[in-house]
Design brief:
- By secondary structure, this protein is α/β, with parallel strands linked by helices.
- The protein has two domains: 257 residues, Aldehyde Dehydrogenase, Chain A, domain 1, CATH 3.40.605; 184 residues, Aldehyde Dehydrogenase, Chain A, domain 2, CATH 3.40.309.10.
- The chain is 37% helix and 21% strand.
- It is built from 17 helices and 22 strands.
- The strands form six sheets. It has a seven-stranded mixed β-sheet with strand order 14-15-16-13-12-18-19, sandwiched between helices.
- α4 crosses α5 and α9 runs parallel beside α10.
- It is globular and about 85 Å long.
- Keywords: NAD, Oxidoreductase.
């Protein structure tokens, strides 16, 4: 945490949201929210006290008593209004996001829009939260299911998508009748708070949505709190594993979307220009700070000759502040991120990978204090090298080679992560073989970042995911509800009694 200096002390403070009110924290621990392109302090975020976290949970618990009984149409109409408010404020939301996170304005709008899609999906809760009925399963007996809300749920979100991922979480949880406590990233909470303001404006009642800020202590408090029934997490593998283990031991439902090392196979028959554009965009967009970033290209056979053209494509990308027109690659989120990414590039060189394009210390006019790394490409990368084994979370593309598709699939399946993968080919047979044999949850065919639309669910697998239900889509309705099965028989005066039945059968 930053010690508040005179400049930081003049910056506005980020508030907590408790029981429908934005309140000033009484904490003595604060962190600066810093523009990563300029190092300007934008705001100060509090690390909420234990009492404030308890108050947020208590508010959610009290609100659940009435919210769970709110008609489903009333809930749906709130999210219809919220999606319109988000559309109306898109430019403001994107500008806030760019200032505190660094990504380009067009990418920031994309961040907001992909979250907006989930809000629209939440407005369809009337058809998503349907139970089942079997009529006359025995003599005069019907069985049916109810999908009922759990109670207080919580979300812990990362820095890289401060609009999209909170919108993955609280709309679906609230639409299904739960109340929610959100802990956004302490690095860039401002756009998240603006979205919560819009949610209240749309009609979310006091206590139904609450926000606390903080670091490890706040995460642990959420994991341990007896009144929180379910937790959704997106972030690093280290923290996600901790959250899953700690919260599961506390008896909670948990879903954790975690780290990745996403590969793309490039077959020699792929459309070269489209493929090179896709590789560059997916590897270097958002400065590589996406859990679905394409970080390893596996070039098969003659496609290995495309490296020089890929390097030239990467050189055309503009590195600058996210507000500058035409910028392709903005800054990394923090000085610590910059140090980590450049350190991994150093290790890649030391461990024998060939540095085809060096993005360290780019000259970015007007942003000399920014956390910039330009597009960086390694070839000859193999398992065991740090740049292959670790998620770099920067604009670094590793290139590996394979003799054929079988060797490429074997390489990908040997990696412990299973978030996303892709193949570039014009062969239907190759694409079908890939989708059948690859052991990764989300597959793209000529699509470099295969994040599904909310009609489906985010389905990362293996070391990239803990918990068996994903965020948004049909799966998250099951995550945020408890299935109650009712077996009913109604008698009228004409029903003949068969006496006492001491068996388990229904007669």
């Amino acid at each position: 945490m930053n010690a508040p200096d005179k400049v930081a002390a003049l910056a506005p403070t980020v508030k907590l949201l408790i029981n429908g009110q934005f309140v000033e924290s009484k904490t003595t621990q604060w962190r600066d929210v810093v523009n990563p392109a300029t190092q300007q302090v934008l705001a100060r975020v509090p690390f909420a006290t234990a009492e404030e976290i308890d108050a947020a949970v208590a508010s959610a618990k009290e609100a659940f008593k009435t919210w769970k009984k709110t008609p489903i149409g009333t809930r749906a109409r709130i999210f219809l209004k919220l999606q319109q408010l988000i559309r109306d404020n898109m430019k403001e939301l994107a500008a806030l996001l760019t200032a505190e996170q660094g990504k380009t304005l067009p990418d920031a709008e994309g961040d907001v829009f992909r979250g907006l899609e989930v809000v629209e999906h939440a407005a369809n809760i009337g058809t998503l939260q349907l139970g089942e009925l079997a009529n006359n399963v025995a003599n005069g007996v019907d069985t049916y299911t109810l999908l009922q809300p759990l109670g207080v749920c919580a979300g812990i979100t990362p820095f890289n998508f401060p609009a999209m991922i909170p919108l993955w979480m609280f709309p679906m949880a609230i639409a299904t009748g739960n109340t929610f406590v959100l802990k956004p990233s302490e690095q860039d909470p401002m756009v998240t708070m603006r979205l919560c303001e819009l949610a209240l404006q749309a009609g979310v009642p006091p206590g139904v949505l609450n926000v606390v800020h903080g670091g490890e202590a706040a995460v642990n408090a959420i994991c341990d709190h007896a009144d929180i029934k379910a937790i959704s997490f997106v972030g690093s593998t280290k923290v996600g594993t901790h959250v899953y283990n700690r919260a599961s031991l506390a008896g909670k439902r948990v879903q954790c979307m975690m780290g990745a090392k996403n590969h793309a196979i490039v077959m020699p028959d792929a459309n070269k220009e489209q493929t090179l554009n896709a590789l560059a965009g997916a590897a270097f967009g958002a400065a590589g700070q996406r859990c679905m970033a394409l970080s390893v290209a596996v070039l098969v056979g003659e496609a290995r000759q495309w490296i020089p053209e890929l390097v030239e494509k990467a050189k055309t990308l503009k590195v600058s502040g996210g507000t500058e027109a035409g910028t392709d690659v903005g800054p990394l989120v923090s000085c610590a991120a910059l140090e980590r990414v450049t350190g991994l590039i150093d290790r890649g060189v030391a461990e024998g990978a060939k540095l085809e394009l060096d993005g360290r210390k780019p000259d970015v006019k007007g942003y000399e204090k920014g956390n910039f790394v330009g597009p960086t490409i390694f070839s000859g990368v193999k398992p065991g090298m740090s740049v292959y084994d670790q998620e770099i979370f920067g604009p670094v593309l590793c290139i590996a080679g394979a003799d054929d598709i079988d060797q490429a699939i074997e390489l990908i399946n040997a990696n412990p992560n299973g978030n996303g993968t892709a193949i570039f080919t014009q062969s239907g047979a190759a694409a079908r073989k890939f989708q059948e044999e690859i052991d990764v949850g989300q597959v793209g065919i000529n699509v470099p970042i295969p994040v599904p639309v909310p009609l489906f669910s985010f389905t990362g697998s293996r070391a990239s995911k803990l918990g068996d239900l994903g965020p948004y889509g049909k799966q998250v309705v099951m995550f945020y509800t408890q299935t109650k099965t009712v077996t009913a028989r109604w008698f009228d005066d004409s029903t003949t009694s068969h006496g006492v039945n001491t068996t388990i059968s229904l007669k």
